[in-house]
Design brief:
five-stranded parallel β-sheet, five-stranded antiparallel β-sheet, Phosphorylase Kinase, domain 1, Rossmann fold, 5 domains, 34 helices, alpha+beta, Transferase(Phosphotransferase), domain 1, 20 strands
């Protein structure tokens, strides 16, 4: 326990490791205080950052309905937030100790709703509203919100599925979208759902959803409809029951959209109770002021396609594996459609993993598959020690002493299995067969009846050949009965001779169960529906605006959303408070000449950002669709906290999406985890940022990225970053003019070739070794040993790619360059294997 000095403690209020809450007094002036103490003698930086974040955020709000903070105290190596003690107790305790009338309960929730409205106006989402975080002073009735540890300043967050026991917030009260399994972002309306669960409990004495199992509780939040309150207790008026039902709607679009609407309805209910007159034909939401511009997150016009996808998953659950290919133009909504599968996956307790191929990182073998299975392994590592031991046992049995084969591709497997012995070298075809066999065993370990597996690979048009080979392998595996493979690609970028199309043709011929879902553009009437839902305006005025938007965007969903957002940001669509209506002038929009090219539109939005944010977006585009703050910090040559501050404008504009929760800890003196992942909102945003660089600037950016990543990567971690470093530097070869840097890059390419070869990625291996040989030309006489090893590696890579004549020529050249008998022996040994494999015994 941390020893507190300067405070006298009178009461231990609660404990939620690693935090303890005390009541006491400050010794200097006897001021009553509440202390929130990080009760760890040597806390991690991330734990300290969370406490600082909460303190800074509460202090910035300065609201009578939010607990006030006095100071942030350093206690040895830890921290404590010193807060006011206004005599409040948790709402749960207050309600249990007092026989509250119905109107008194409504007034409490009405006050909390008003407080939430004010903090939402300040751009803050609480994300953990529940009866323990609402304090009531029993004597004065004063109400305050506490515990802003999960709160964030952001318009919306996109959550990833994770272990329910590791979700932000209190599981019994979190909104469906907070589970990461709803394909919907978290925004201010998530707080209204949590308030609705709180009100339900306050009125009925129990929550609408009760489950001993965390995953079952998640499923209830996203799919189960609770009984209406007036049907459970006839003393609760129908009007109040309807208010609660609206608060806890599954989709945020159907909940209250403002505190004004909620408080107006509650005021009406309270007045009716006081008058003793029931509200007839009460329709909740009639007091709403729809002044928030909120793009709907639901899918439009895709019901049939969603049903086909869900049917395919149901078949996989029943033991019939399959492949679903979702095709369509960029921005048409392929990923959004596929993410609708989260609900049934939660119900069946299955796993959903996804990876995305990157248009600017096509040389990295297996990139999307690695990303997908890294995600799966991270999910496993959040489970209990007992479950991790269970997975370790099953994986070791499935891989049967050959775990290193799979670990060459997915190094994170070591976190579960520990260090594993090397495997004996084999001839190329045998090595390929061994890899195929154990990779299939690896996947089968997870795709089982009790836990089906959905594997989503996005942007297959950019997939490398080794990944396509694995896709064929998985698609042909009839023993992996509970696996659904979902692929998405742009069919307009895949010609008949494209590697992806050739792979798909082979899969069809082999009898793989494949289904194709093609997404078309949205018709004008659906565009009209989107605009109507966005601005809550259902009159005929919408039609001319919808016609303009449809004409500019050609019915592309991503373009529609971005164009509407741009019109709002530039005040071409705005809310008129005097007339309580949204206004726009189609003629004025036409005169301004909004582009009908989505990349140009996104480039224009990027140019509106501060210069520092623009620079970082361009650098991020060079790194890839997904990147960490640490990588951006290295390339941007600044501390992560400074990078995060400059990057906030891009985050606020919605051009960049944080993947985890730690992004909010940067700034205000807090220092979050620089390994936090971010991604571009869409490929078109990344492309727009990248295209803002001239060709020369692109080379310079890649050169700087490669050099700085190399300088900042410890030798022990070089293998992990090798492909990224080499790919950056290879795009800037022209800038590497001195012999020393070209020699070093040749070494790195040779290392990358060996790494790719060990991962059975033979085509990338050949490309890397070709670059290495080119780099060494002209200075090879200065590095005879390196030249010899490159020739030998080049010969083997040519052979592995079926280029046997070229392989033999390089073996003979290596023989000529051999410096001594030992080197010649190496070549002869390699040639013996080569001729044996090719059946040339003459």
């Amino acid at each position: 326990m941390i020893k507190l000095t300067g405070f006298s403690i009178s009461e231990h209020l609660s404990q939620s490791p690693p935090v303890i809450i005390y009541r006491g007094k400050r010794r200097t002036d006897s001021t009553p205080v509440i202390l929130k103490v990080l009760d760890i003698e040597f806390p991690l930086p991330i734990q300290l950052a969370r406490i600082r974040h909460e303190y800074d955020l509460i202090r910035s709000l300065d609201h009578p309905g939010v607990i006030r903070v006095h100071s942030l105290e350093k206690i040895h190596h830890s921290l404590a937030i010193v807060m006011e003690d206004f005599g409040g107790i948790p709402l749960r305790a207050y309600a249990s100790k007092n026989a509250l009338r119905l109107d008194e309960r409504l007034k409490i929730v009405r006050r909390v709703g008003a407080i939430l409205g004010d903090i939402h106006s300040n751009g803050v989402v609480h994300k953990d509203v529940n009866p323990n975080n609402i304090l009531v002073n029993p004597q004065t009735g004063e109400i305050k919100l506490i515990d802003f540890g999960n709160a964030a300043r952001i318009a919306h967050e996109n959550r990833q599925p994770k272990n329910p026991d590791h979700l932000e917030g209190t599981l019994a009260y979190i909104a469906p979208e907070q589970t990461g399994r709803m394909n919907r972002p978290v925004d201010y309306r998530s707080d209204y759902y949590s308030l609705g669960i709180t009100l339900y409990e306050l009125l009925l004495g129990r929550r609408p959803f009760e489950a001993q199992d965390s995953m079952e509780l998640v499923h209830q939040h996203i799919a189960a409809v609770p009984p209406e309150l007036h049907l459970e207790d006839a003393a609760i008026p129908v009007a109040i029951s309807r208010v609660v039902s609206k608060l806890i709607e599954k989709n945020a679009e159907h909940r209250y959209q403002s505190a004004v609407g909620l408080c107006g309805d509650l005021d009406e209910c309270i007045a009716a109770l006081a008058a003793g007159v029931p509200l007839e034909d009460f329709s909740p939401g009639r007091h709403e002021i729809s002044d928030r511009f909120s793009l709907p997150s639901k899918l439009y016009g895709r019901d049939a396609e969603i049903h086909r996808l869900l049917d395919a998953y149901a078949r996989a659950c029943a033991g019939t594996p399959g492949i679903v290919l979702v095709t369509g133009y960029s921005g048409i909504g392929k990923s959004s459609l596929i993410n609708e599968i989260h609900k049934p996956i939660t119900r069946s307790r299955g796993y959903f993993v996804s990876g995305k191929f990157d248009q600017f990182r096509r040389n990295i073998p297996y990139s999307a598959l690695i990303q997908a299975f890294q995600n799966l392994l991270h999910q496993l590592l959040t489970e209990s020690d007992e479950r991790i031991a269970h997975w370790r046992e099953r994986l070791l049995a499935a891989l049967d002493g050959n775990a290193r084969v799979v670990m060459e591709v997915i190094p994170e497997l070591e976190h579960i299995l520990g260090l594993q012995p090397e495997v004996p070298p084999l001839a190329p075809q045998e090595a390929q067969n061994r890899f195929n066999f154990y990779f299939l065993n690896f996947v089968r370990t997870f795709a089982r009846e009790e836990r089906p597996l959905a594997l989503f690979l996005d942007d297959l048009q950019w997939a490398d050949h080794p990944s396509l080979n694995l896709l064929e392998l998985l698609g042909a595996d009839g023993d992996c009965k509970h696996l659904l493979i979902i692929g998405a690609y742009r069919q307009n970028e895949v010609a008949a001779s494209h590697p992806l199309q050739l792979a798909l043709d082979r899969m069809k011929k082999s009898g793989a169960a494949m289904e194709e879902i093609t997404l078309d553009i949205l018709p004008q009437e659906v565009v009209c529906e989107i605009i109507t839902d966005t601005i809550a305006c259902a009159d005929d005025r919408v039609h001319p605006l919808a016609a303009l938007v449809y004409r500019k965007t050609a019915g592309n969903p991503f373009f529609i959303n971005q164009l509407l957002k741009t019109l709002h940001d530039t005040k071409l669509v705005s809310y008129d408070y005097a007339n309580r209506a949204w206004t726009w002038d189609v003629a004025q929009i036409e005169r301004i000449g909004i582009t009908d090219n989505v990349v140009e539109l996104m480039a224009g939005n990027i140019r509106k950002l501060p210069d520092a944010a623009q620079r970082l977006l361009k650098l991020a585009a060079c790194i890839g669709n997904r990147f960490t703050l640490q990588e951006l910090s290295v390339v941007g040559e600044a501390e992560p906290a400074a990078i995060a501050e400059d990057f906030h404008a891009a985050l606020h504009a919605g051009l960049i999406i944080p993947i985890g929760d730690e992004y909010k800890l940067f700034g205000s003196g807090a220092a979050g985890d620089a390994r936090e992942d971010y991604r571009f909102l869409h490929d078109r945003v990344q492309q727009a940022a990248y295209d803002l660089l001239s060709e020369e600037e692109k080379k310079q950016a890649h050169h700087r990225a490669g050099v700085l990543l190399l300088e900042n990567t410890p030798e022990a971690q070089l293998d992990e970053k090798l492909f990224d470093i080499v790919n950056h530097l290879n795009q800037a070869v022209d800038l590497m003019t001195d012999a020393a840097s070209r020699h070093r890059l040749a070494e790195l390419n040779a290392m990358a070739a060996v790494k790719a070869k060990h991962a059975i990625a033979y085509e990338p291996a050949l490309r890397y070794i070709e670059v290495a040989q080119t780099l060494l030309s002209g200075v090879a006489h200065k590095s005879p040993r390196l030249r010899f090893s490159i020739l030998l590696e080049r010969a083997e890579c040519e052979h592995l790619n079926g280029q046997n004549e070229a392989a033999e020529a390089h073996y003979l050249e290596a023989l000529e360059q051999a410096a001594d008998q030992d080197a010649k022996a190496m070549v002869y040994e390699a040639m013996i294997h080569f001729h044996t494999n090719t059946g040339n015994f003459s």
